[in-house]
Amino acid sequence: MIFVRKQSKIITTFFDIKTKKKENVIKRKFFIFFKNSVCLPGIAIIVIFGSTSINPASGQGIMRNIAQRHKIILAELEKDGYVRVHDLSERLEVSEVTIRKDLKELEERRMLIRTHGSASPVSPLTIDRHIDEKEKVQVNEKTRIAEAANRLLQKNDRIIIASGTTVLTFAQKITITDPITVITPSVKVSLILSYKPNIDIIQLGGSLRKSSASVIGPYAESLLTEMMCSKLFIGIDGLDLDLGLTTSNIAEAHLNHYMLNAAQEVIVLADSTKFGKRGFGKICNLNKIHHIITDRNAPANIIQIIREKGIEVTLV
Questions:
Q1: Fewer Cβ atoms within 10 Å of its own Cβ: the N or the C terminal residue of the chain?
Q2: Where do the domains of the chain lie?
Q3: Contact between 261 and 287 (Cβ < 8 Å)
Q4: Which DSSP symbol is given to 299?
Q5: Beta strands at 199-203 and 180-184: parallel, antiparallel or unpaired
Q6: Pairwise CA distance, residues 314 & 87, whole Å
Q7: φ and ψ at 74, to 5 degrees?
Q8: How many angstroms separate the CA atoms of 268 and 175, rounded?
Q9: What are the φ/ψ torsions at residue 259 (nearest 5 degrees)?
Q10: Residue 67: exposed, middle, or buried by beta-carbon count in 10 A (0-12, 13-18, 19+)?
Q11: Measured between alpha carbons, how far is residue 266 from residues 162, 230, 306 in Å?
Q12: What whole-number percentage of the chain has pLDDT above 90?
């Protein structure tokens, strides 16, 4: 839209130009002065009086100073549990170099942790908690995840069920009546399934981890090297886009390596609180898994990135 304003012998032309750029409306004001009321090419003097960006939703300008950018970055991190340099650069309309400097400064202030092309919350590390305590957390979400996992079972499947409360809930929700075989380090999983006549159970042996009621060690690892199973259902303590899958116990993570090698398909059962977190022991990179089942509260931006890697994600 253009408005023209004339004054006596000197013509002052005022252009109020509004253009759309992405989701923001950019408004610039130009004053052009023409000598002796004649518009002659080459002698016009153009004075630009500022440039502001207006957000249609809020009516406020784009926040471009450092303090305001930092506030937005931390708010996005709190909301989604993860932020990407590219996304922040587009939203704040500054270069990726500027965003990286912002993230570096926030990391130096211990307000976040930088990773490759992204940032995570300042305290992403998980701690080892007793299985009885973890069973009381995210109960509804774990139930929906378990029911979705149950629908993946097929006749004559030979599956590995790892340790943890989400896979324990999965064992409780198994309804298949056709014969299947279950290999597990979890004592609780074995006890639950022992009442189902159609399920053959191979209980792995080794040292008992009391906090998870499951076994670890070379005996369990050795037996897994002699097996090939159709599916592995694994629970985790953390899922990080750069580090991959992790758990809070290094010996359990080591046993998980053998499970991965013994399975044709790796299915992760994890509620949304595990995203953006890191455990003490690394299980594997994301390229080793095929399917993730989680609840709908999982960060949308992380889910999108995971799907872009070719990993199937089921939200329940």
A1: N
A2: 11-54, 66-121, 131-315
A3: no
A4: -
A5: parallel
A6: 24
A7: -70, -35
A8: 19
A9: -65, -45
A10: exposed
A11: 11, 9, 15
A12: 60
Q: Are 207 and 245 a contacting pair, CB within 8 Å?
A: no
The number of C-alpha atoms within 13 Å of 87 and in the hemisphere containing its C-beta is 16
CATH, range 131-315: 3.40.50.1360
150 in Cβ contact with 123 (< 8 Å): no
Q: Which positions ≥6 away from 153 have C-beta within 8 Å?
A: 159, 174, 176, 180
Single out the residue of 30, 18, 94 nearest to residue 56, CA to CA.
18
Q: How far is CA 270 from CA 63, 112, 205, in A?
A: 36, 23, 25
Q: What is the DSSP string of 154-219?
A: -TT-EEEE-SSHHHHHHHHT----S-EEEEESBHHHHHHHTT-TTEEEEE--SEEETTTTEEESHH
The predicted pLDDT at position 60 comes to 41
Comparing CA positions, the residue from 107, 104, 69, 105 lying closest to residue 88 is: 69
pTM comes to 0.67
Report the number of secondary-structure helices (H) and strands (E) in the chain.
Answer: 10, 18
Chain segment 30-60, per-residue pLDDT in tens: 444 444 444 444 444 444 444 444 444 343 4
* Tokens of residue 12, six digits: 């002052």
At 20 the pLDDT is 42
CA dihedral 117, 60, 52, 14 (to 10 degrees): 160
Lookup: tokens for 287: 């390229």
Residue 16 has pLDDT above 80, yes or no: no
Mean local confidence (pLDDT), 231-241: 95
CA separation for the pair 200, 31 (Å, rounded): 83
The class level of CATH for 66-121 reads mainly alpha
